[in-house]
Amino acid sequence: MPFSHTKIVGPAGRYGARYGMGLRRKVTAIEVKQRGKHRCPSCRSLVRLERIAFGIWRCPKCGFTFAGGAWTPQTIMGKALAPEELKEVEAQKAKWKEAVK
Fold it and tell me: Which of 6, 7, 59, 69 has minimal Cβ neighbours within 10 Å of its Cβ?
């Protein structure tokens, strides 16, 4: 395995000593979140979604293309209002109510 110059700084290692550490830390945080595993809204599988363009994402498993955030597939506001998430929460609440009775 070749020597890696980005072991500590992560994806921002490609910038070398340029742009300052603060900006490189921000870039690293964004890119780690962007390239991590996310749940597909269609097939619900946990995969690395492909970013096709600014805010457009595709699931490599099922091929579902959807609009999301610029840097992450689902924004905080979108996650709060996603119908799939609300259905899961309602189902969980119903299970808890039945368990209490």
Answer: 7
Rg (CA), the chain: 18
In the numeric block, the tokens 């980005």 are attached to 6
Mean pLDDT, to the nearest integer, of 14-42? Answer: 91
Residues 93 and 57 in one domain: yes
Do 59 and 73 lie in a common domain?
Answer: yes
36 among annotated binding-site residues: no
The answer to the question of whether 43 is labelled as a binding residue is yes
Residue 61 counted as an annotated binding residue: no
Q: Per the annotation, does 6 bind a ligand?
A: no
54: containing domain: 36-100
Please give the model's pTM, rounded to 2 decimal places: 0.67
